[in-house]
């Protein structure tokens, strides 16, 4: 998958996620303001709980909206070996057992998974420990992460 296709699929996924959350927030808001959910005593908290839920969903919708706007304005650039990995690079890593994974170093949207099987691309950001380590690296460099006390070594085998 090339970067232009990947970026379009990220935008499509974010648009879908935002619409789903918008509808969920609207449903929670309606539940919070429904006449049958008005508290009858101090132990009747259904309306209050729905209000908290609607607020959280609205906040998450705003975060996704911001990520969507960022991706809509992102211009895909070719990899520059002189600068190393930067935001917007599609990176292929290989671990010591030969397992490969593809990562897109994006400005937002950490955790998004685009594609399936060997075409799966995971979005990470420079705020993540792995994203921090990737910045400025080049093909054949290695990155080391300590997860649950175990050192994981991965090699950069391709950058687009």
From TrEMBL:
UniProt keyword Protein biosynthesis, yes or no: yes
Gene3D superfamilies noted in UniProt: Transcription elongation factor, GreA/GreB, C-terminal domain (3.10.50.30)
Keyword Protein biosynthesis applies: yes
Any GO molecular function: translation elongation factor activity
Entry keywords, A to Z: Elongation factor, Protein biosynthesis
Any single biological process term in GO: regulation of DNA-templated transcription elongation
Top-level division of the source organism's lineage: Bacteria
InterPro entries linked to this entry: GreA/GreB_C_sf (IPR036953), Tscrpt_elong_fac_GreA/B_fam (IPR023459)
Protein name: GreA/GreB family elongation factor
Organism expressing this protein natively: Pseudomonas soli
Organism lineage string: Bacteria, Pseudomonadati, Pseudomonadota, Gammaproteobacteria, Pseudomonadales
């Amino acid at each position: 998958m090339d970067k232009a296709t990947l970026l379009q699929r990220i935008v499509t996924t974010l648009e879908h996620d935002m619409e789903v959350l918008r509808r969920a927030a609207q449903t929670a808001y309606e539940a919070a303001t429904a006449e049958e959910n008005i508290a009858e005593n101090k132990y009747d908290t259904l309306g209050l709980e729905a209000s908290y839920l609607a607020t959280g969903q609205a906040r998450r919708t705003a975060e996704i909206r911001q990520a969507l706007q960022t991706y809509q304005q992102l211009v895909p650039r070719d990899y520059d070996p002189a600068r190393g990995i930067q935001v917007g690079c599609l990176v292929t890593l290989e671990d010591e057992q030969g397992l490969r994974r593809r990562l897109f170093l994006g400005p937002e949207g950490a955790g998004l998974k685009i594609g399936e099987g060997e075409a799966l691309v995971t979005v990470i950001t420079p705020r993540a420990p792995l994203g921090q380590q990737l910045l400025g690296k080049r093909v054949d460099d290695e990155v080391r992460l300590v997860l649950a006390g175990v050192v994981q070594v991965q090699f950069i085998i391709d950058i687009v």
